[in-house]
């Protein structure tokens, strides 16, 4: 099967979750554990997980994950039970997830940025029976009375007790439609929702990444984004499981350290946000690092500035930049940009992934003609079945297997998808609709702009005006010069009328999304 010039494994229609029929890969593993076992069989002695001085090959990963499964079983966990993990970027994060999959558990992923009330809500809502957590985050765990179903708390200091068990005899058989993971999406209104990610969702997404990025067991991916996010879980961990490549785990992203690790480990692939590429290029010793092995630079979450693309092309000629757009509900990728088309379609997030169908709908739920702006709806084998314990939110967000993304965008005649804004973030200036992504993309082209966020500033006359919060590293950056840059590329009503320059990173939630609600509240205050 050919996907825009890329050879893709054969697909056929498959029934999913009772009421859906979607294209799925004809030959595919039936579970996450089978994918791990396949990697161990395909590349037993190849690097699998690397963190600082620690290295595990795929044979060791399968064996240690099996021991973790036995340890979890000894704690009284049985197939279908929920296991929560509150861990940073470390090898044990992956081993725990693999062990849970082998035992048929559902892994509930928590972020180390979440605070006590958020953690309490997720543990109570998911009914998690055990949590494995960073030792130093123990004080963030809720009181026993608030989480009556939580039986055990295993600190990382006691993790060895799990791995000391004899390997589990045989993996638990699970249906590919069974939930493997619950990732809670950021609740912009009300409580977070637990996205139920099935084994088949993870496998489909991992196979999409493998095919579209031409990943093999020779690939070495750096996980610089938080593993406790759909990008970390799927684009980093699971894509390397699928191709039996190596995952190099970085505890936290620091540009100087990242470059040193990428050079030392001969990294070939990563997925980051554009601001992270910019921070790397700003390092004075960038040219001293041998990054010649780096061939795939995945990115998403924001447009890649033209200046960044051009600079990377000069510095690392063999690097192919691939834009991807997705969400927790789509198990990471919904679109992928073929790398040779990146430079000629900078305003697009790519083409629908193999097997994905995307439409643009109006407020009444009718499909709009190509080129028109409306809400993007997505259907594919990567789309989850719904939200844990929340039939109301599921009914509101899914229609016949299509997920309502909440993103405003368009699809052109050639299939290229453009994403302009979240519905709730669009600015209405006296009747003129302004999409923040368009203005942020222009600002990103300035060499002194690390990242920016466009928000609405309340106005008694026009309703809303355009306000920009801009992160820079140059104290001499002039707001008037930025307005002039925008004025040369945008309609006058889209140019930011007020600008805040800051050296502090933009506020992000546990999933890494910019929290524009906080920026709006600060502005009003």
Present the secondary structure layout.
Blueprint: E1 2-3, E2 6-7, E3 11-16, E4 20-25, H1 32-42, E5 47-51, E6 54-57, H2 58-74, E7 82-86, H3 91-103, E8 106-109, H4 116-126, E9 130-133, E10 152-155, H5 160-163, E11 179-185, E12 193-198, H6 199-212, E13 220-223, H7 230-243, E14 246-249, H8 255-264, E15 269-272, H9 274-281, E16 296-299, H10 306-315, E17 320-327, E18 332-336, E19 351-352, E20 357-361, E21 374-379, H11 391-397, E22 398-399, E23 402-411, E24 417-422, E25 427-429, E26 432-434, H12 436-444, E27 449-459, E28 463-472, H13 479-489, E29 498-502, H14 516-524
Commentary on this structure:
- The protein has 525 residues and is α/β, with parallel strands linked by helices.
- Helices cover 28% and strands 28% of the residues.
- The protein contains 14 helices and 29 strands.
- The strands form 7 sheets. Strands 6-5-14-13-15-16-17-18-19 form a 9-stranded mixed β-sheet, with helices on both faces. The protein has a 6-stranded mixed β-sheet with strand order 10-9-7-8-11-12, with helices on both faces.
- Strand 17 (320-327) and strand 18 form a beta hairpin.
- It is globular and about 70 Å long.
């Amino acid at each position: 099967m050919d996907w825009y010039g890329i050879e893709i494994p054969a697909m056929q229609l498959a029934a999913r979750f009772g009421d859906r029929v979607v294209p799925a890969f004809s030959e595919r593993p039936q579970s996450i554990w089978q994918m791990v076992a396949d990697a161990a069989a395909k590349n037993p002695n190849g690097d699998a997980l690397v963190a600082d001085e620690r290295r595990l090959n795929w044979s060791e990963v399968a064996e240690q994950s099996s021991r973790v499964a036995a340890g979890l079983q000894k704690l009284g966990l049985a197939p279908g039970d929920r296991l929560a993990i509150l861990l940073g970027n470390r090898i044990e994060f992956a081993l725990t997830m693999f062990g849970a999959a082998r035992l048929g558990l559902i892994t509930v992923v928590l972020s180390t940025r979440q605070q006590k009330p958020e953690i309490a809500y997720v543990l109570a809502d998911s009914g998690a029976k055990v949590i494995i957590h960073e030792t130093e985050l123990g004080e963030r765990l809720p009181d026993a009375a608030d989480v009556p179903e939580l039986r055990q708390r295993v600190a990382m200091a006691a993790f060895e007790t799990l791995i000391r068990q004899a390997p589990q005899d045989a993996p638990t058989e699970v249906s590919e439609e069974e939930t493997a993971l619950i990732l809670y999406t950021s609740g912009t209104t009300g409580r977070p929702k637990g996205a139920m990610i099935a084994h088949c969702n993870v496998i489909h997404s991992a196979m999409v990444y493998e095919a579209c990025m031409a990943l093999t067991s020779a690939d070495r991916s750096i996980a610089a984004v938080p593993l406790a996010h759909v990008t970390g879980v799927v684009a980093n961990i699971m894509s390397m499981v699928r191709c039996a490549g190596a995952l190099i785990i970085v505890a936290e992203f620091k540009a100087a350290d990242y470059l040193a690790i990428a050079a030392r480990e001969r990294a070939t692939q990563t997925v980051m946000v554009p601001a992270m590429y910019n921070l790397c290029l700003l390092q004075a010793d960038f040219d001293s690092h041998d990054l010649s092995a780096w061939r795939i630079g995945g990115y998403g979450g924001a447009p890649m500035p033209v200046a960044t693309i051009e600079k990377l092309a000069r510095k690392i000629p063999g690097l192919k930049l691939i834009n991807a757009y997705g969400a927790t509900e789509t198990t990471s990728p919904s679109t992928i940009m073929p790398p040779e088309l990146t430079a000629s379609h900078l305003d697009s997030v790519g083409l629908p992934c193999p097997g994905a169908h995307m439409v643009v709908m109006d407020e009444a739920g009718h499909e709009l003609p190509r080129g028109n702006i409306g809400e993007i709806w997505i259907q594919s084998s990567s789309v989850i079945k719904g939200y844990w314990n929340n039939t109301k939110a599921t009914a509101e967000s899914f229609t016949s297997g299509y997920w309502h993304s909440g993103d405003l965008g368009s699809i052109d005649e050639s299939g290229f998808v453009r994403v302009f804004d979240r519905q709730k973030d669009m600015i209405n200036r006296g009747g003129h609709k302004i999409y923040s992504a368009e203005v942020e993309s222009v600002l990103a082209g300035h060499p002194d702009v690390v990242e920016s966020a466009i928000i609405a500033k309340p106005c008694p006359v026009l309703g809303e005006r355009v306000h920009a919060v801009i992160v820079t590293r140059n104290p001499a950056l002039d707001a008037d010069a930025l307005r002039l840059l925008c004025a040369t590329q945008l309609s006058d009503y889209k140019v930011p009328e007020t600008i805040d320059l800051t050296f502090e990173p933009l506020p992000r939630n546990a999933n890494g999304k910019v929290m524009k609600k906080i920026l709006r509240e600060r502005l009003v205050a």
